[in-house]
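User: My collaborator sent over this chain with a note saying "see what the structure looks like." That's all I know about it. Can you take a look?
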Amino acid sequence: MLAMMINVFGGLAIFIFGMKMMSDGLHCVAGERMRSILRLFSANRFVAILSGTAVTAVIQSSSASTVMVIGFVNAGLLTLVQAIGIIFGANIGTTVTAQLVAFDISWIIMPAIILGLLAGFVPRPAFTGWGTTIIGLGFLFLGMMIMSGELKQLSEHPAFMAAFQIFDCAPVNGWIPPLALFGAIAVGMAVTLVIQSSSACSGIIIALGASGLVNLYTAVALVLGSNIGTTITAQLAAIPANRVAKQAALAHTLFNVIGVLIICATFWIVPGDSDLPVFFRLVDLVSTSGDLPRQIANAHTIFNVCTTLILTPFIPLLAKICERIIPAGSGKIKFQRLEPHLLDTPEIALTQTVSALRKMLKKAWKMADGALKTGGLGDGADRTALKNLDEREARIDLYQHDITAYLSQLMLRPLSSRQAARIPKLIHCTNDAGRIGDHTVTIRDLIREFKSAKGKLSQAAETEFRNLHRLLSEQADNALQLLEGSTPELQTRAVELEKKIILRCDECEHNHLKRLTAGQCHPATGVFYLELVSEVRKISRHFANIAERAAACRGAAEAEPESV
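Assistant: Without extra context I'll predict from the sequence alone. Here is the result:
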């Protein structure tokens, strides 16, 4: 008996391994597009449900879908209502695995493993992905065959069979025993909590049904429990996230719990023309073959489809309930652009990094702009721009650290050549934005020395500096716009501004040296002015670097052609 148990767990391990290989392969082939669908095709609750169903059916994991949704919500890419719709769809999509393993097609095992292995040798990402998917399919059915075969032998042992009688949910005098029902649901929850996959749990339940260890009633109760247990993955993902993401995870749990309660209520409703409860009557009508594994798979699908149809009109109400249970509070909700769960979605993670870079650059320019106004005009009202400058510069450094660390983690993920090429560009631009903050501190120190010496710029120097500052402001706006979206006009203007600022800096230095030679200004003032112009030149160079790399950072096709 011990050897049989080892074989059962070995079959389960092969089954889960095959399922993971299938999921990884499908991620490689179509995962990026599927993840984009989750965010783009969620305009209303019905489209969100369809996109959630399609994506989960393809990537073969409702847990992966819901974790992605939590990441999107935490990053501010999805609203709570959109997230709930996708989660509803994910529950339907995950039933595809159960439908798949319910087929008795053991003949496909060896051809799939051989074909998948051969496809894996082709040095192309698409072939490698399909090879992993096909070989995973073979291992999936191999594990299922081993589990079913060993469980059939174990079902002949009275002691083993007696263990399954504890939660036997078969009707007694026409009624399903409530204690046995909720006990089986609890067992399904516990198993799914341990293995963290409702699809794997469904496979185990179907294997138990095929071996005769459980009947349809008990199998359905176990499936219902697994649907509740699978929500723990989203709950764990939402722990470090914001309140809206926690609300989305709660909605997932509430949806599954409410759905289970609704379906359980039908177990004690028996139509007059049938001896089967409503739900099992529906399963019997859909399952024309009468095969128990197929009935279990159909019951799983019917449960999720019916609960989705019933609860879809109440999505806004469910969202309000979640907001009431987990209130956002009086403070502003903080969305995390560099969301860790999006690292498995490289394209979206890179887009979020560009967004964080734009915010960092805006803050760095706001600091520099305020300092330059103070240095150029000596306006007392503008000196407030220098207050708390060290703290603001420290925040810029933190942005730089966070973006660099995020991109370093992203480099460890499987990336396309285009995606990999964007990361060095983004790191360079992040360093440029950080250096703007550093130059602002230098400008602040220059101003302090100049003011303490009671220095004053000549009228000619102030006029020159105003014009130089105006050009630098245009260059900053241009760089920010290029990070958001490129046009030929913006790119042409970036080159023009760089040349104009270099020329203007040369003119400022030349004219000021002439004034110094003519004795029209104090030498200390002359040194300050030349150093100030030098800092502007350096800041301009950083903006020019960012403008030059902006298209590549955004992954524009014209900037970084995809290698074949």
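A starting point for your reply to your collaborator: The longest helix spans residues 2-40.
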